[in-house]
Design a protein that fits this description.
Two copies of one chain form a homodimer.
Chain A: E1 2-11, H1 15-33, E2 35-42, H2 46-52, H3 58-65, E3 69-74, H4 89-100, E4 104-110, H5 123-126, E5 130-136, E6 148-149, E7 153-161, H6 162-177, E8 182-187, H7 193-206, E9 213-218, H8 219-228, E10 235-238, H9 240-254, E11 261-265, E12 271-274, H10 291-303, H11 308-323, E13 326-327, H12 332-335, E14 338-339, H13 342-352
Parallel strand pairs in A: 1-2, 1-3, 3-12, 5-10, 8-9, 8-10, 13-14
Antiparallel strand pairs in A: 4-5, 4-11, 6-7, 11-12
The structure holds 3-isopropylmalic acid (2 copies).
One 3-isopropylmalic acid sits at the interface of chains A and B.
Chain lengths: ~350, ~350
């Protein structure tokens, strides 16, 4: 029987609650599909600060590098917001992404037909939406130097090099080939030099993919078009901070940020995590939506472990559960039949599996 | 009889069409309210490049500085996108903003009850929305140096100083005092040093406004919250590029980017313009929505000329026209009774006045 080594980072806030449900679901499909998973837990974020004094202990990096894939919850919370920047949870996360070399962050935004009424957008606007946002994750203004804050003046640097753009561009074009063959590259080339290089490089790269259509859109317009007519998009490729903003916008198209999974991939171990944060305001209340994490686990099965059947089973179970009207609180505004808490949602998915 | 000197910049694309309608409406209310307006036209953007060789002729700056207020359409178009950066329409606009010292860009997003069905968002989500976005306009990554693109590596600098943040913060707090007394400052302080200075400075400034509530939100979350629950916002204050993205998102809440006006103010002449662009794809077709420009003209009457009665008349006429089911094409998706072209929309507003 195949065994996979999964590294687990639960993190802060609702992190532990939602990751526990995903593990429950993973175990259920492993049993059905005849493979086994062994988990090893590592610390990152606020809990790592409290326990070890730093937001990203060396053991975490090493442990994840030695695993087949990493399932991650979320980090951060007000408690640590006043620490010096190098000791904050977010700094640990960014360093983690960098050390893992996960330059490509894939954030699919797919509408479940069962949830077409859960969004604040009209059903006819969102029905059938299937967008893949490809966000560059270890460059741009998140990592650019110099960066400084002397209390009077502060600055950051948004920087990209051609190889960085080519690398993420290739990911987008390759993904588009397996989908509707359309890439929309988002930038602010009418204002920013760094966006001009981004655009020129994408245009050059497009020559290698004559079967894929490349278009460009300014980031302000893209934010608007995601709300106006999200169905127009297939693959969106963009830089780190624009991707951060646009994928959160896309989550609303889909109905709740509690639904969107992500995969962060590079040349080493891939990381799977919900796109939402640690939601300290609802931590410990047992009402968090574990679905984004559970779908992230399904992505992990599909992309890192090649266990497609197991991934399918999870996705089918989620659809069935939603179809039967089960909702977590975040999704309950418009059409819930039964509102479940975090654990109940995990349990019922296991039942349906 | 009072006479006001208005500088007019029509610009490119649909610019001339929409500004012409606004002038028509301005003349109608001037007549009713017993003041007169004299207009002088100046060049900027693509048309300035074609006519004078540069996107911002010196006469434009001088002329606008010598006027009581400036009404501006929009600039830009593919035709000029391949010119060297210093010769592009957008470069002219940015230089114009800088020379005018218009650091505060006010972008109100108000739902007309009459248009509550025109948005892609559900009516119950948007009914009653009344947001004022205060965007810093002459700093941040738009103007930060160093900036460079050598074809292999390119970068821009997102920079703010404390006085720049205080200045725009004051604008936001003062506006909030006349509204619901709540300011939400949007940044990315969990990642960016420049945002940390922004946040710290806003917190300090808030002490001078104990009657106004200050909250902070990360930009990714703000983009999402604008779609999830736009009614939660009163005044939003943010930096240049975040404001660019968020105000376009807000325009969809309101139903169409063809509706949102803006005022750019500083210590010199204020500029009034729609937040939308020059829309080259529909230029000359006579279908552009002139309402954002007409509402901008109303803002000009109110804020620069203190002609409140005239401003009220325009706003009332627009509401009545919308109530009677008149729509331009961009608004026609959900509930139009009669679809008008650009000139017809201007005409009917004059009729109602
Ligand atoms: C927590 C934060 C640093 C992070 C980011 O901005 O990348 C988060 O918003 C995300 O999108 O994963
Ligand atoms: C045309 C462009 C330079 C401009 C901007 O980004 O400021 C526009 O999008 C706006 O919002 O006024």
């Amino acid at each position: 029987m195949k065994n996979y080594k999964i590294s687990i980072i639960k993190g802060d806030g609702i992190g532990p609650e939602i990751v526990d449900e995903a593990i429950k679901v993973l175990n259920a499909v492993a049993k059905k599909c005849d493979f086994s998973l062994s988990y090893k837990e590592y610390l990152m974020g606020g809990i790592a600060i409290d326990t070890t004094g730093v937001p990203l202990p060396a053991e975490t990096v090493e442990g994840v590098l030695n695993s087949d894939a990493c399932l991650f919850g979320a980090i951060g919370g007000e408690k640590w917001d006043t620490l010096p920047r190098e000791l904050r949870p977010e700094t640990g996360l960014l360093k983690f992404r960098e050390e893992m070399g996960v330059y490509a962050n894939l954030r699919p935004a797919i509408i479940y037909d069962e949830l077409v009424n859960a969004s604040t957008l009209k059903p006819e606007v969102i029905k059938g939406v299937d967008i893949m946002i490809v966000r560059e994750l270890i460059g741009g203004i998140y990592f650019g130097k110099p960066r400084e804050n002397d209390g009077f003046k502060a600055f950051n640097t948004m920087v990209y090099t051609k190889p960085e753009i080519v690398r993420i561009g290739k990911t987008a074009f390759e993904l588009a080939r397996k989908r509707d063959k359309r890439v929309c590259s988002v930038d602010k080339a009418n204002v920013l030099e760094v966006s001009q290089l981004w655009r020129d490089t994408m245009n050059e790269l497009a020559k290698d993919y004559p079967d894929v259509e490349l278009t460009h859109m300014y980031v302000d317009n893209a934010a608007m078009q995601l709300v106006r007519n999200p169905k127009q998009f297939d693959v969106i490729v963009t830089g780190n901070i624009f991707g951060d903003i646009l994928s959160d916008t896309a989550s609303m198209v889909v109905g709740s940020i509690g639904l969107l999974p992500s995969a962060s991939t590079g040349d080493k171990t891939a990381i799977y995590e919900p796109i939402h944060g640690s939601a300290p305001d609802i931590a410990g209340m047992g009402i968090a939506n574990p679905l984004a994490t559970i779908v992230s686990a399904a992505m992990m099965l599909r992309y890192s472990l090649n266990e497609d059947k197991a991934a399918d089973m999870i996705e089918e179970a989620i659809k069935a559960v939603l179809k039967d009207g089960y909702r977590t609180k975040d999704l309950a505004a418009f059409d819930a039949k039964k509102v479940l808490n975090t654990v109940q949602m995990g349990d019922i998915i296991v039942d349906y599996i």
